[in-house]
Amino acid sequence: MEILKSISSKKKVGIIGAGPAGLCAAVRSQQCGHDVTVFEQTSKVGGIWVYTPEVNVHTSITNIPKEIMQFGGFPFPDMDNSRRSFVPSEFVLKYLEEFAKPVLSNILFCHKVVDVERHENLWQVQVHKLDDNQNPELTTFKFDVLFVCNGHHSKPMMPEFYEKYHKPWIHSHDYRSASKFNDQTVAIIGASFSGMDILDQLARAAKKVYLLDDKAIKFDSLLPENVLVKPRLKDATPDSLILSDDTSLSDIDTIIYCTGYVYNFPFFNSGNPLVEVLHNGKIVSKLFEHVAHVDYLNSLFFIGLHVTSTFFMIEYQVRFALALAANYTKGFNEEDVKDWEQKRLE
């Protein structure tokens, strides 16, 4: 960061979100000598690592080793003298709270960004203070550089036909504990990270668990006896699920959709959106290397969009963005950037 600090002219940097990505952007921007303001719509730092009834952290243990869940120069402390790699989620939150201390005074808590526009070569950000019911007016801030770090675990991705099914269902976003499903027959839709985490817990509580995912069939023999792997979900009726092999399931008490999330940027003007969410909510365009907006390479950055964005990856995305903001990058031009984005979408 010393090299970037030595060549960076002081800029006003705005950051949307105080989760891991936003905190990293704030700390590194401050270290480069920039004037930093962070907008966080909740009352705490940490993003998805803060457990509340509205925000989901449904497992007590991380599924990524702490060695790649740490930022440069700020190692994970051995909080319980166990030297284990997979730590409880509350350890991660404590780590983030410690990491955030240098920028806590720069964070505006309970401030929700409602609109972002480009105006006179600056980013104009309109913000609503959520805990001020007496003053519904918006406050406007202007920045040279804007980091979008609002996360991507708030808007669940659902199959088009999910409303056809009239029996109980939830999305993994709302899952809290396996005890709610004691002695039930449960169908888990999807076998990615959240699906397998929840399956591990439900197999010990539910009477029977269906796991609907073509990729999981090869693991069938390794799963508990009360777990039955089935083909992917194709359609639904009011009281049954139709699978891709045209068989159906009708003995289900509850469905848990572990189908991931769609990217969502509600603060961008819908009449003139700066980004497009394509491929059923799975790709954000127009971004170079998934980070820098192709039309504003030096001033608009998106951090942590990868599904498995470790702190290690976030760190390097932030450093790349700050290098672009300081014009400290070589080896590509505007045509190369747009060509890269076009090939990504093909």
TrEMBL record:
The keyword Flavoprotein applies. Its cofactor is FAD. The keyword Cytoplasm does not apply. Gene3D superfamilies: FAD/NAD(P)-binding domain. Pfam families: FMO-like. Keywords: FAD, Flavoprotein, Monooxygenase, NADP, Oxidoreductase. Belongs to the FMO family. This is Flavin-containing monooxygenase. The lineage of its organism: Eukaryota, Metazoa, Ecdysozoa, Nematoda, Chromadorea.
